[in-house]
Design goal:
The protein is mainly alpha-helical. Helix content is about 85%, strand content about 0%. It has helices spanning about 5-15, 20-30, 35-45, 45-55, 60-70.
Length: about 70
């Protein structure tokens, strides 16, 4: 982990500890989660998600496991 990553992790931890993260998340929810939903849409479009979906479709045992757990 590089020093820049460590610094970013420390900043995120500070935001959690001082309540900044919670306040931001509450406001995001009250506004209908626009940033979160946009992030989710971008993540769905990522190549790794597309490839993962195609690979899972080639694994019939995953479907069998899902049916057994329902």
């Amino acid at each position: 982990i590089s020093p820049a990553v460590r610094d970013e992790m420390r900043q995120i931890l500070r935001e959690i500890q001082d309540g900044t993260f919670a306040r931001t998340w509450i406001l995001e929810n009250q506004a209908g989660r626009p940033a979160f939903n946009a992030y989710r849409q971008r993540a769905k479009a990522d190549l790794i998600e597309t490839v993962g979906s195609e690979l899972r479709a080639m694994m019939p045992w995953l479907k069998a496991d899902k049916k057994a757990s329902n």
